[in-house]
Fold:
Amino acid sequence: GESVGLHLPTLSVQEGDNSIINCAYSNSASDYFIWYKQESGKGPQFIIDIRSNMDKRQGQRVTVLLNKTVKHLSLQIAATQPGDSAVYFCAEIPLTGNQFYFGTGTSLTVIP
Amino acid sequence: NAGVTQTPKFQVLKTGQSMTLQCAQDMNHNSMYWYRQDPGMGLRLIYYSASEGTTDKGEVPNGYNVSRLNKREFSLRLESAAPSQTSVYFCATESGQGGQPQHFGDGTRLSIL
Structure:
């Protein structure tokens, strides 16, 4: 089966600092990757996605980097704010089939 | 625009009781999914429906049944609830065109005593 994991289960950062959350995936044939944010008591919320033909994609305060050589995905959050405190997890979507495979998540805590 | 709506938000059942979790979407998406989320584990797929009229098993289908009532609605049924089914259940939708994110409801928190 698929294996999508995170290097660190928890991360604490000072307000205003940058945050980096990592994700490893196992299927080199995966074509599409997504980062989700999940706040307490809420469903996962789409943040940003990237396709396998790209190395980097930027959004508002967020950047996703994809390194296909080592099968690694990262989410960078610039100028982290208290509202960024949540669990972040990645999802990988293989070329074939329509199932998503989700990581277990990293809990980000922003210290005011 | 509500997106994906799940009902109920919370439920407590006794072992052996039955229950149906409801999910409705107004995004005109073809594909719908049911996941369970347990502490320390990623979302695990129970069942999915790639399009109206079709359903398929996911990773953990045992003890569950689903119905894709129409394009908007996808329900999950527990026929005889067991304590191992205590979890948070999420419904998600996706356009069905590929290369698009799934959109989630806010979950149903189910406890089985």
